[in-house]
Amino acid sequence: MKTGIIIICYNNEYEIDKDICIKYINDVRDIEFCLVNNNSEDNTFELLKDISETCKNVSVVNINKYKSSRLAIKAGARFMFNEYNLKQIGFITTNTFCKFENLGMLIKFIQDNQLNILKYNEKILNVKETKLTLFQSLFSVMDYLAKNN
User: Fold this and answer.
1) Cα distance between residue 32 and residue 54, in whole Å
2) Alpha helices of the chain — where are they, by DSSP H?
3) What pTM was estimated for this model as a whole?
4) Candidate CATH numbers 3.90.1570, 3.40.50, 3.30.1330, 3.30.300; the one for domain 2-148
C-alpha cells in the first residue's frame, strides 16, 4: 500500500524545473504525489500538468479561488482519498516548499527520506488505539522528518 504526499503550490513558476522534477519523481517508489495549484497567477498550473502527464504517480488538483493552506491541503486529501488506496497522506505547505531552492530539490529530499516517510504509519498506529479519520490522519512531512532525523 502506498503513501500520499500533497504539495501545495502558489505562484511557484520559477521554482519548478519540469525536467528535474520528472527525474526525481520517477525515482520515488510507493509514493503518490498530489500537486495542488492554489489559484496561481503565473504558469505554475501548466507546469504541474506537464509533470503529471509524464509521471504516473503524480496528480494535479487546481483550486480556482485562493484558499488557506489548511483548505488547500483538505482539497488535496479529499482527492487522494477518493482516487487511491493509501496508508496515509502527508503534506507540504507553500511556506515549507519555499525553504527549498526549487520543487526538484524538495522532491529529491522526499526521495532521500522516502523510507522514513513510509514508516510513518507503523509508528503512529503503534501509539494510537483508535482508527483516525481522514483529516486526523494527515501529517506534516517536514515536521515528522524533523522529529525523526
Assistant:
1) 14
2) 18-26, 44-54, 69-83, 94-97, 103-112, 114-118, 120-127, 141-148
3) 0.86
4) 3.40.50
Q: Which cell goes with 6?
A: 500533497
- Amino acid of residue 65: K
* Range of weakest confidence among 31-40, 46-55, 56-65, 85-94: 85-94
Q: In angstroms, what CA-CA distances link 4 with 40, 58, 59, 104, 129?
A: 22, 10, 10, 17, 22
Q: Where are the domains of the chain?
A: 2-148
Distance, CA of 32 to CA of 39 (rounded, Å): 22
Residue 13, pLDDT > 60, answer yes
DSSP assignments along 121-141, one per residue = HHHHHHH-SSPPPTTTT-EEH
Assign 20 to helix, strand or coil: helix
